[in-house]
Amino acid sequence: MKEGEPSADVLLVEDNPGDIRLVTEAFATGDSESTLHVTKDGIEALEFCHRRGAYENAPRPDLVVLDLNLPRKHGVEVLEELKSDPDLMTIPVIVLTSSESREDMRRSYECYANAYVTKPVDPTEFIETIQSLETFWLSVVRLPTWVR
């Protein structure tokens, strides 16, 4: 975030415990003062963003990092719902997935993903990729925090 702006709330939507651990580690050692929230499936992610049920007091995410292959609701469906909701459509969504499928990439961008990143297999590269995303999205880009 830019100096003088509040820290960002980042929602990670990921069901793989190993990937959650790596993203958490990358954020903990990164430069931003962001807060990472985690949901483990598509329905939980939407509940968090809509602030419903157990997530009634959740902050509005400033950035969503979304896996595609999720239980209960696929990541593309989550993306479609977020980007079709006038209250949530301005939240940037980074698709972070192991899929290298051109079809998954095409569908993600057609649903207005802001970026599509393939997860590196090597843990060190994975952490470096997350830190690069964190630096760009939370230090360089101006996020739409006015709608909190």
Query: Could you tell me the radius of gyration in angstroms?
Result: 14 Å
- Going across the biggest sheet, name each strand in turn: 2-1-3-4-5
User: Low-confidence spans: pLDDT under 50, at least 5 residues?
Assistant: none
Overall mean pLDDT = 90
Give the SSE string. EHEHEHEHEH
* Number of separate helices: 5
Largest sheet: 5 strands, parallel
**In angstroms, what separates the terminal alpha carbons?**
15 Å
Secondary structure layout:
Elements: E1 9-13, H1 17-29, E2 35-39, H2 42-50, E3 63-66, H3 75-84, E4 93-97, H4 102-110, E5 115-118, H5 123-140
Parallel strand pairs: 1-2, 1-3, 3-4, 4-5
Give a written overview of the molecule.
It contains 5 helices and 5 strands. Helix content is 40%, strand content 16%. Strands 2-1-3-4-5 form a 5-stranded parallel beta sheet, sandwiched between helices. Helix 1 packs across helix 5 and helix 2 (42-50) packs parallel to helix 3. It is globular. The chain is α/β, with parallel strands linked by helices and 148 residues long. The two termini are 15 Å apart. It has helices spanning 17-29, 42-50, 75-84, 102-110, 123-140, and strands spanning 9-13, 35-39, 63-66, 93-97, 115-118.
